[in-house]
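Run log, item B.
One chain of 196 residues. Sequence copied directly from the ordering sheet:
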Amino acid sequence: MNEYSEKRTVVEDDVPIKRARPVVETQYDSVVHEDRGMSGGAVAALVLAAIAAAVVITMLILNNQQKNTDDELAQERARAAAAQQATTQQPAQPAQSAQPPVVVMPSSPTPAVTTPVTPPPATETAPSSAQVEIDVTSTLMSDPDLRTFPIDVKVAGRTAMLSGHVPSNDLKIRAEKLARTVKGVGKVINGIIVEP
């Protein structure tokens, strides 16, 4: 510490010059503190505050990413449910024949008799690729272990192509087996990537 002292001399002007002037001395002692940089405690507090801010920002980013993933999954489920509901609400329309009834005109003068021709029984039509795709997606979404992983399904003809990411090979095989159970799927190409 540095000490600083000051002497002050006060001369009173009202006193006539003929006499001796009294001198008053006052001594001031003061201590001057000089700060040179920050203390170790202040530096540690700043470092801890920076780390806490980084952790909070990282948690906010991760929370936002999880929310986006949950929103996408909910939208996919809603689309699949809407598509499934739309297909179950439409009653199956029987195939109607576009052929008019055939009228047989005999060559003899006997009265005309109309005989309707019944069409052959309608054969069951195969579901469309879009319908098979919706059915496979719904089947995968209904599985409790697979519903949390986004698996994309594309169907061309009777071939279903699976893509996405799952954490284990068992889930990859399970998705393929479930896809094979859907009516209209003849072949499954499993392009799912296993990422632990």
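Observations after the first pass:
- The chain has a mean pLDDT of 78.
- The chain has three helices and seven strands.
Flagged for discussion on Thursday.
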